[in-house]
Amino acid sequence: MTEVPTTGPVPIGVPAVEVRGVDKTFSSKNGTVTALEGIDLAVAPGEFVSLIGPSGCGKSTLLRLIADLEAPSTGSVTVFGKTARQARIDQEYGIAFQQAGLLPWRTVRANIELPLELHGASRAERTARATELLELVGLSDFGGSYPDQLSGGMQQRVAIARALAERPRLLLMDEPFGALDEMTRERMQTELVRICGETGAAVVFVTHSIPEAVFLSNRVVVMSPRPGRIREVLAVDLGRAADRRDDLREDEHFFANVSAVRELLHGDQGARPAVRGVENR
Amino acid sequence: MPSLDGLVSAAGLVGSRLRTRTPSAFRWRRATLGALGLLLLAVVWELYKALGPEDGVVVGGLTVLPRTTDLAMPHVWDVLARLGQPVNSTQDTLVWQAVLGAAVFSLGVAGVGWLVGVVVGLALALLMQRFRTAESAVLPWVILSQTVPLIAIAPLVRRWGSQIEIGAFQWENWMSVAVIASYLAFFPVAVGALRGLGSPDAIHTDLFRSYAVGWWTTLWRLRLPASVPYLLPALRLAAANAVIGAVVAEVSIGLRGGIGRMIIEYAQSGSGDPAKTWAPILGAVLLGLLAAGVVALLGLLLGRFRRGEVSA
Hints:
The complex is a heterodimer. Chain A is of the alpha/beta class. In chain A, 33% of the residues lie in helices and 23% in strands. Chain A has two domains: 17-92 and 169-268, 3-Layer(aba) Sandwich (Rossmann fold); 102-167, no CATH class. Chain A has helices at residues 59-66, 84-89, 108-118, 123-136, 152-164, 182-199, 210-216, 252-266, and strands spanning 17-28, 31-43, 48-52, 74-79, 82-83, 93-96, 170-174, 202-207, 219-224, 229-235. Chain A has a six-stranded mixed β-sheet, sandwiched between helices. A four-stranded antiparallel β-sheet of chain A has the order 2-1-4-5. The longest helix of chain A is centred in the C-terminal third of the chain and has 18 residues, at 182-199. Chain B is mainly alpha-helical. Chain B has one domain (79-306): Orthogonal Bundle (MetI-like fold), CATH 1.10.3720.10. Chain B has helices spanning 3-19, 24-51, 76-83, 95-130, 132-145, 150-162, 173-197, 202-210, 215-253, 259-268, 274-301; strands spanning 57-59, 62-65, 165-166, 169-170. In chain B, the strands form two sheets. Chain B has a two-stranded antiparallel ribbon with strand order 1-2. A two-stranded antiparallel sheet of chain B has the order 3-4.
């Protein structure tokens, strides 16, 4: 579990993610759409960075660029000093999406083992790792269950375990708790904080929710839409992310940070009502 | 050949009955209901025969309901009794034995046709899934192929086949029948498999891309398992089609030994022996049920891949 002994958000050596001068345009029948423009961003090893912004600000696209599921139109994306493509081939990151995306014909355990199996890990190795991960996400009793027998929150925990299976130094998460109810969501956030503390992985986390971003992150990247740009990067001064507990949600520092992010999001829009597509809860 | 429509629906019906995995009590209930349905059919048959007009119901010169004479509608028990009697006065073979033999023969030919059709259909679907251009090039032909009447291609297949002679291998008539059966069977497989192979969510294909695995691994680990719920109804349809294709092709090619030919032969003796005509038709129904049952068994074996399946 402690493959990479990175501590804290101090950028030492090679950054986990480095995005430089990236534009991304999509061409469709109705002309070209600029999804991202002039993006520069670095994520240090072990750092937790959230991307937040209204719908259409390109935060998911940015994540997909880092994952090499899309290619940038201009600029470069490097992950641990490699091109995004090479990093994907080398399995430098684990990824989780808004939907758990488990394979319904595989048991929970077999789902977690999937990436290991695809990359030729031995049976013994797979079993040991899956057992470890099941314990980490608190599903030890459910290894033999099928995904359709689990609740949404449990499925998402399996997806996170699967993303962690190959001990990546980087986790990419695209609104992984977006489809969960508020209670489950907060519990999952607390668990994610603990898991990240235990694994020491850097995380790029896309979210709609301001409190979620503040609670989880070392830094919150606030984005604006059409074209997608980084408006501001806010350092969250709530101590080490791994030490955060539920009671932090009641803390006035927490609220101060939430307000700060909210103001940044609403930014130049002055007296206009809340930005659409962003949850203020 | 009015039995063929009945054959399709019977095959489809039984398929869907066996398809769902249910607790045994529920399954028994369904089996009982199925048997009751058969009984009801016999009752309706006899009721109409007893109460319907002798010359049938004719509306504007068109016979809407059949005659009720013993010639047109023999009693159910006569049909069943005829099964237990010799085929004709010169033979010892009982009708049911002859029908069963013919059904097994036709099932064998249809089975070969089904297998060939499934292989061809899967290959086409894989080709279309792999190359987008292949889909636009091949799919119209696949659909067009089914608009050609069976009667038209049967003599062609036979003629082409008779010209094939490689070493000791010689084309035989049953192979022509199997080819025609496969011609009908490949279509639902090609279309169903294509849909199934394309069914994984974007999340799943993204995930496999993030794992940096190739097309074949993605096919084996993701696309094929995901296509099972689409493939099973397609295979069942293919089985029914293969049976119909085999029975009809037996008639148009003139292959002896199968149910198709037997339906014609027994119909010719219909005026003197009406109950006998129905025997091979029952055999054809049995054939359809067997074919659908085999596919249903396949579905039970693949149950793991059908979790969360929406009833198709």
